[in-house]
Amino acid sequence: MTAAYAALFGLAFGSFANAAIDRIPRGRSLNGRSHCDGCGVTLRPAQLLPVLSYLMQRGKCAACAAPIGVRTPIIEAGCAIAFAAILATLSPAAAIGACASFVAVVVTVGVFIEKRGLRS
User: Are the C-beta atoms of 50 and 12 separated by less than 8 Å?
Assistant: First the structure.
């Protein structure tokens, strides 16, 4: 059950990483609600469920059908898997540090890629 909780935290932190990767290169604040880049509609809570909402909406905005990049569910799922694997192999105290470091690296690399214009 602990791995499941770690995966849930990974999904949440993956969602945060996506927001940071999207907003930091554009000079936007990390505060505030997420919105569609295509139409500007503020996302409802059900549209913010990591990976699940992407699948339910078939990778498109519910309001305007603008495509949502595949990076979103990949980072969210990747963080979930990484958090579960880290917790399975390290002590809880070490796992917290490793997970925090993992998210920091994901955000740093993601921002670097976004600034270079290599995003998909």
Answer: yes
Helices (DSSP H) in 33-70: which residue ranges? 52-56
Place of tokens 């799922």: 77
Cα distances from 91 to residues 52, 85, 86, 103, in angstroms, run 29, 12, 9, 18
- Work out the burial of residue 102: count CB atoms within 10 Å of its CB; fewer than 13 is exposed, 13-18 middle, 19 or more buried: buried
Name which residue leads in pLDDT, 83 or 35: 83
Q: Are the beta carbons of 52 and 7 closer than 8 angstroms?
A: no
Phi, psi of 39 (to 5 degrees): -115, -10
**How much is the pTM?**
0.87
Is residue 82 over pLDDT 80? yes
Yes or no: say if 15 and 74 are a contact pair by the CB < 8 Å rule: no
Tell me the Cα Rg of the chain: 15
